[in-house]
Specification:
- The chain has two helices and 13 strands.
- By secondary structure, it is mainly β.
- It is globular, with a radius of gyration of 16 Å.
Length: 180
């Protein structure tokens, strides 16, 4: 596996070694020993699977207590994936990393605890798998406003996205509860 640094230390793009032939392909999406060598020493407690259609934007979500580290990959379709640093003491607090994740290019994104996460679907539909280091705790979940001009995220949208009521009510970065 290749572990590629992004513009925010700790957020890592992972390229697995894919073995393919006329029958299909195989790759390891998680190997604790290899990930530890790549600087990611995580213990996962929950796996999640989501499916969304083109134009759906989910996020930017985080848990202020019980923060989750997430290993994210797309197994069907393509998404524009975004993480925002919400660690008050970080020199990159308020900055974001945006990457395209797709089933055609099986890369994964490691998002350490302390970040908000969101994505928009750019294919007809997409399915994503998440491994998380903490359990989902809705009472601790928060949402940043996906369209906050201060975040300056260049979402690749053709028109208004489909968002949930919760995401529509997300807070701008300046008003959001962030990590110490």
């Amino acid at each position: 596996m290749k572990f590629l640094a992004t513009s925010i230390p700790g957020v890592t793009l992972i390229e697995p070694r894919v073995f393919g032939d006329e029958r299909g392909f195989f790759y390891e999406s998680w190997n604790a020993r290899d990930f530890a060598k790549g600087g990611i020493d995580a213990e996962f407690v929950q796996d999640s699977h989501s499916r969304s259609v083109r134009g759906v934007l989910r996020g930017l979500h985080y848990q202020i207590r019980q923060p989750q580290g997430k290993l994210i990959r797309v197994v069907v379709g393509e998404v524009f994936d975004v993480v925002v640093d919400l660690r008050k003491t970080s020199p990159t607090c308020g900055q974001h990393v945006a990457v395209t994740l797709s089933a055609a290019t099986p890369r994964m994104l490691w998002v350490p605890p302390g970040f908000a996460h969101g994505f928009c679907v750019v294919s007809d539909y997409a399915e994503m798998l998440y491994k998380q280091t903490a359990f989902y705790a809705p009472e601790h979940e928060r949402s940043l406003l996906w369209s906050d001009p201060e975040l300056a995220i260049a979402w690749p949208l053709a028109g208004a996205p489909t968002v949930s009521e919760k995401d529509r009510a997300g807070l701008p970065f300046r008003l959001a509860e962030i990590f110490p």
